[in-house]
Design brief:
mainly beta; Methylamine Dehydrogenase, Chain H; 2 domains; five-stranded antiparallel sheet; 21 strands; 0% helix; 51% strand
Length: 259
Amino acid sequence: MRQQLKPYLLAASLVLAVSPKALSGEDPTFTAIDFPGASFTGAIGINARGDIVGRYFSGSVQHGFLLSSGSFSTIDFPGATLTQANGIDRHGDIVGIYMSAGVTHGFIFGGGSFTTIDPPGASFTYDGGINSRNDIVGYYVSAGVAHGYLLSDGSFTTIDFPGASFTAAFGINPRGDIVGPYMNAGALHGFLLSEGSFTTIDFPGAARTQTNGINSRGDIVGRYDSAGVSHGFLLSSHDDDGRDNGDRDRNPDDHHPDR
C-alpha cells in the first residue's frame, strides 16, 4: 500500500520539543501539542529522536498523527474508519491500530507501506509498542479472552500472566523486557516479563496498578489508583546500559479505539 501521510505546518503554539535531559534542570519546559484544527489531540509515543505519534479528532473522525522536525503528518490506514498511532521506533517505523468494517486491527507503517498485524484467531488486535529491533508488543482477543503478544522475527508469541483473566503488553525495551497490565480476581496489576520470568508490580497501597513503558535502563512508568484518584509513577532502576530509551505513557482507558 502507498504512503498515506498528509503534511501540515506545526501549530504556532508549539515551541520546542522537550527532551528527557530537560527534566533534570530547574525549569523543565512543557510544550502544548495540538494538531491544527483538531478538537482533541493526544500524544502517545515518542522515540529517541523526539518524533511523536498519537491521535487526533477532526469532527467525529479519529486519525493518527506523526510530529517530526516541527511538522505534523496525518496517518490514516487506507480505507479505515479510525486510525491511532501508538509507538515509533528509532528508525521511524510506527505501530498502532485501525478499524475497518467494525473490527480493530494492529498495523505497522514503515518504508511508505502499511502492514496489518493480527495474531492468528484474533477478533481484536491492539499494537502497543515497538523497540529498536522491530519487536512489537500488544494484545489481542480470541474467543472472548484477552492475551498479550510479542511479534519478533515474523513469529507471534502469546503472553499470559499465570492465572490471569486478562493480559496486555504495552512496552518493550531493546533488551526485550516487556511490561503491561494483567487482571486477576478483578484486580489490575502491572507486570514485568524479563528473561522468561514474570514479576508483579504493585504500587504500595494502590487499588490498582498498570505498567505501560520500559526503557533500556529498566526504568518503568505507569499509573496507579488510590482513593479514587489516578496517579502516574516511575519505578527506577540503577542498571544503566546507555542504550536508547523506549518508554511511553499509556492510559488503560485509551485502549479501546472509541476513546
